[in-house]
Each structure stands twice: as C-alpha cells, then as structure tokens.
C-alpha cells in the first residue's frame, strides 16, 4: 500500500519536472504560431480596400458587443442588493449572426454572402425593434422592465450594426466599381 503511494508520488513529481522542462519549448511553438497568424493577417489586411478594412472592424465589433451583457438589473434581498448583468434571451441568435457575418464577409466574399449579410442584418434589426416594443418577450421575461437598465454594450452593438450595414454597402459598391473597371 505504501509502495504504491510512494510510486504514485514519485511519478507525479517526475511528470511535473518533465512538464516544467517543456514550458520553454511550448513558449517557442506558441510564439512561432502567433507570429505566423499575425503576419498572415497583416498580409491579408494589406490587400483589402479602405472600406473593406472598416467593414472588417465593424463586423468584429459587432461580434464583440453581441457577446457582452446588455442589461443591468438589481435584485434586493433581505439586507443587501445584488447586481446582475443580463444578456437577451435571443442572444444566441445575435452571436450566431455576428459570428457568421464576421467569418463569411471578413475573409470570404461571393455573391451569396452579400444576400446573406443584408438578410441577417435585417433580421437583427427586426429582433432589436421587436425587443424594444416587447422587451419581456424578446430580451428578458423574469424581471420587471422598469427595474432593468440598458448597459453601454447594447448601444455599442447598435452602432456597430449600423456602421457594419453602411460600410458593407459601401464596400460592396466599391468592390463592384473596382471589378467592373478591370473587365
């Protein structure tokens, strides 16, 4: 019994020692991988038009703000208050739309992605307007709407949604001009 405990202890110590020896190698590999990714993104970035760059940033911000909580709610218990941040009930739809738009339109463009982009942006706008008109149905259903305050990520999401729409349109228009001149 003590023999197995001692052998388990020595094996654990030897595993930890070997793991610590691998840390410099892991750092080198991760550094190499990060450098490759950054350099390839930089090369990709240099090939983009001005409106495409702004469009890419707007899509990234839309994805970022769709993940953050949009609402703030304070719950009063017996002796103290507890603050809770809420995401909308349909948050998974906003995240999925933002994620797919970011990857489809940030790295790959074709004729169907334009239709996809404008359709999904319109779906987002419809859901947001529906949430404005009926917040208990769309955003949260277990709290009193008068006790909920909207946080800044909600407004930043709306701004990024608007600018993504505008710069998406301008990017597609400029892209059409560039490609029509080349033929």
Number of helices: 6
Uncertain stretches: none
Task: Please give the alpha-carbon distance between the first and last residues.
Answer: 81 Å
| Largest sheet properties | 3 strands, antiparallel
**What is the mean predicted local confidence, pLDDT?**
84
Structural domain tally: 2
Helix- and strand-based class? mainly alpha
Query: How many DSSP E strands?
Result: 3
- Categorize the overall geometry: flat
Sheet-strand content, in percent, reads 5-15%
The largest sheet has its strands arranged as: 2-1-3
Taking all Cα atoms into account, the compactness measure Rg is 24 Å
Helix residue percentage: over 70%
Order of helices and strands: HHEEHHHEH
Secondary structure elements and pairings:
Layout: H1 2-47, H2 50-67, E1 71-76, E2 81-86, H3 91-107, H4 111-133, H5 135-138, E3 148-150, H6 152-182
Antiparallel strand pairs: 1-2, 1-3
Helix pairs in contact: 2-3, 2-6, 3-4, 4-6
Please, could you describe this protein's structure?
The chain is mostly helical and 183 residues long. It folds into two domains: 1-47; 49-182, no CATH class. Helices cover 76% and strands 8% of the residues. The chain is built from six helices and three strands, in the order H-H-E-E-H-H-H-E-H. Strands 2-1-3 form a three-stranded antiparallel sheet. Helix 2 (50-67) packs antiparallel against helix 3 (91-107) and helix 3 (91-107) runs antiparallel to helix 4 (111-133). The protein is flat, with a radius of gyration of 24 Å.
């Amino acid at each position: 019994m003590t023999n197995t405990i001692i052998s388990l202890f020595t094996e654990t110590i030897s595993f930890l020692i070997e793991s610590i020896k691998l840390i410099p190698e892991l750092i080198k590999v991760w550094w190499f991988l990060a450098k490759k990714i950054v350099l390839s993104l930089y090369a990709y970035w240099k090939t983009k038009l001005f409106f495409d760059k702004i469009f890419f940033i707007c899509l990234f911000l839309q994805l970022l703000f769709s993940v953050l909580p949009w609402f703030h709610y304070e719950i009063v218990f017996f002796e103290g208050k507890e603050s809770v941040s809420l995401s909308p009930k349909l948050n998974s739809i906003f995240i999925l739309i933002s994620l797919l738009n970011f990857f489809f339109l940030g790295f790959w463009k074709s004729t169907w992605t334009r239709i996809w982009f404008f359709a999904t942006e319109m779906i987002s706008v419809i859901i947001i307007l529906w949430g404005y008109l009926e917040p208990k149905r769309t955003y949260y259903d277990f709290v009193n709407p008068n006790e909920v305050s909207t946080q800044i990520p909600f407004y930043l999401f709306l701004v990024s949604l608007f600018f993504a729409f505008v710069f998406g349109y301008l990017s597609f228009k400029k892209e059409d001009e560039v490609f029509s001149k080349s033929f």
